[in-house]
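HOLO CASE FILE
Compound: fe (iii) ion
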Amino acid sequence: MRNLDEDNITRAVIAMHADAKDARVRTLMTSLVQHIHSFAREVELTEEEWFKGIRFLTEVGHITTDVRQEFILLSDTLGLSMLVTALNNKKPQGCTEATVFGPFHVEGSPLVPLGGDVANGAEGEPCFVRGSVIGTDGQPVPNAELQVWQADAAGKYDVQYARDGGDHEHRARGTLIADAQGNFHFKTIRAEAYPIPHDGPVGRMLEALGRHPWRPAHLHFLITAPGFDRLITHVFRNGDRYLDSDAVFGVRSSLIADWIEHPPGATPDGGTSDVPFYTLDFRFVLNPA
Amino acid sequence: MRNLDEDNITRAVIAMHADAKDARVRTLMTSLVQHIHSFAREVELTEEEWFKGIRFLTEVGHITTDVRQEFILLSDTLGLSMLVTALNNKKPQGCTEATVFGPFHVEGSPLVPLGGDVANGAEGEPCFVRGSVIGTDGQPVPNAELQVWQADAAGKYDVQYARDGGDHEHRARGTLIADAQGNFHFKTIRAEAYPIPHDGPVGRMLEALGRHPWRPAHLHFLITAPGFDRLITHVFRNGDRYLDSDAVFGVRSSLIADWIEHPPGATPDGGTSDVPFYTLDFRFVLNPA
Ligand SMILES: [Cu+2]
Ligand SMILES: [Fe+3]
Ligand SMILES: [Fe+3]
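Model generated. Tokens follow.
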């Protein structure tokens, strides 16, 4: 293995891991090496461009913390995340479609009772969400667990207010358990369009590509129930100006719903609102495992 | 741009940067997106594997400092660095071949006078290096600048002894200026085989691939002279057991030379050595710019 040139190096690199114990690792790395090498050959990557790439990845690594995942942003904005979501979520007709996970999920968000307030102080216009979880047979899925999370009126998630990877309060995120009939409801704030964090290397990449960093307004859901496939999805707000240019390529028509505006007055929770408020209804259809 | 699936997402991502100002950026990113997506499709990348990849890159980013460049190690061990070197250093027959830069170069190494001691306290067996720099026409290249760097007897570069990205003394590295006839000579220590840093994510990757982290013994050179292409290369030590399995794929037959062993006694610098010592002679042929 000497005197490798642009034509034979790929085979040599792959031959070096011919004895890797795990066949899947071998498959993955063989394919990865082939495609990365093909890229470099196809564009005749210069040494300066290579080094810019090294510096870019270094910056992506250095800005990444527990609460800022720039590598996920990179994967999201290059469409890789949505591609992986599509590859792994081929569901029967009628199931609710999946979309990207995004970088803002947090493990262990607080349990909120049905009817409770998920916002927990997050700024925004009041919104009452109601929905149900059913199977493809139309039967209710009892007691499904729903994790919800969203940005506030300023377009930010709670974790984006955390400094230095430190603690943050859970705001506009929570975990609910649907009732025995698969129904749930909670209070929150209206979802707003937001730009993904773009003050770092991924933001500079988008700028160089002539792309904007905006995502259409959406509410994230992660729904689990015994006997059903886990569902990671959003509900998107109808009418949003970014529905056709989502920076992370996640929009699906079947996930768009109306946030209905109501004048000040009686609210679905039996109270009253001095300001206009919104309601959202959505039915999730899970795929039997 | 809604309802993207595994078949049409690649075109949608590329279409988003159709208006990027810089045509080369457009070319690079179009190709990169195509090849990364092809990889994910070809292996049907699972969501768990994707997340392992995100975590791997995050670790690569977090271990990277001013003196530890894990992204370069990653590029080197996947053969990308040598591929880029090959693509960008197609030289006329007779020129000294280039090889990988590696992650251990340091800007501004100390100027060492001809005949001086580059080792500067680094542990190792004494070695006297002598050589010349000529052009493809056989004429000497006067006053070429040569940066040299190498590992010590323990297989480590000076920067690997630095802690917390802090200062380090320059050892076994220096900058020399050849004389008007293109000749140079200096004292150093014998180059030794060494494992690339493998206590981090790249080391774990090599282990999963069933690969060793060793590089055959070599001495790095970066040679510049007005009117000639910059040459980044190594001289490899003949007889090294890793010449055919270099962890970074850099070995070229034309760069292998003998480190000749001499018994204790008179040394080329007019002194004497109580221990065996080595000599290395090498002639570099630069490509006119
Ligand atoms: Cu490819
Ligand atoms: Fe989001
Ligand atoms: Fe080296």
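CASE NOTES: The mean pLDDT of chain A is 95. Residues B 102, 104, 218, 220 surround fe (iii) ion (ligand 3) (CB under 6 Å).
CLOSED: yes
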